[in-house]
Write a structure and sequence with these properties.
The chain has about 280 residues and is of the alpha/beta class. It has a single domain (about 15-275), classed as 3-Layer(aba) Sandwich (Rossmann fold), CATH 3.40.50.1820. The chain has 8 helices and 9 strands. Strands 1-2-4-3-5-6-7-8-9 form a 9-stranded mixed beta sheet, with helices on both faces. Helix 4 (about 110-125) crosses helix 5 (about 150-160). The longest helix has 21 residues, at about 1-20. The termini are far apart. The structure holds 4-ethoxy-4-oxobutanoic acid.
Amino acid sequence: MQTIGKISLALSAMTLALAAQAQIGPDPTEASLTATAGPFATASTKVAAPSGYGGGTVWYPTAAGKYGVVAVAPGFTEAESAINWWGPRLASHGYVVVTIGTKTVLDQPESRGKQLTAALNQVVSLAASGPFAGKVDGSKRAVAGHSMGGGGTLAAARDNPTYKAALPLAPWHTIKTWSGVKVPTMIIACQNDVIAPVSSHAKKFYDALPATTPKGYLEIAGEDHFCVNSNTEAANKAIDGKIAVAWLKVFMDADSRYTPFIKASSPATNLSSYLTSGF
Ligand code: 9J3
């Protein structure tokens, strides 16, 4: 009995340790996911343009810990400022995030995809020392981006099947075939987008992702191409942030506390479409 008791205790401790590893931060609520900031205080540091991308800003939780790393790229003609709101928003839920500028504002989606990967590599290297030393778990990588940066996000996911999650935001790409993407992908789209119309971009890409890949499609009602950007309304950021964070938590961190928030019945605010499949 004593031995069995000890084994049982040891197993409980292991289960707790595993659970603790999967769960970063307190239990989520609708309020915590839609708020302008999550539970972690954050800080940021500028990264000068290295080879491979245009430089950017690294946003990270000030609390000690190991966090997944996310790179976020802007769209055609856009600077980092178009998407930099994602830095503190995602970091405040327990991620190290690099919001980037591209080498030139005219770079095409395939180039933007390679730049996202260069940025992830750079941040993992930089975490050896300096302001966010030891905070990056390089085995957990995700990519995101707006418009041509969203097309680049799909390209990076296609080319890097070990990435844990992809968040194409109002994505734009001339490629319409994405049957090679294995990375769990949540596409956030804007219903009245006339620059990247959903019928020929976001929704078409969702349909083109394999049925075996966990995928999602969120379309915000009545909005233009910029419903995922720094200058969009707080109501759009609330749903963008909630679904993006929950997607990262489920697929980067295997944190099942967030699964209810990305199930098809979950999001209710201002949406013209919400689809998920493959998980
Ligand atoms: O990054 C984007 O906003 C892509 C949409 C676009 O302007 O494409 C025109 C070539």
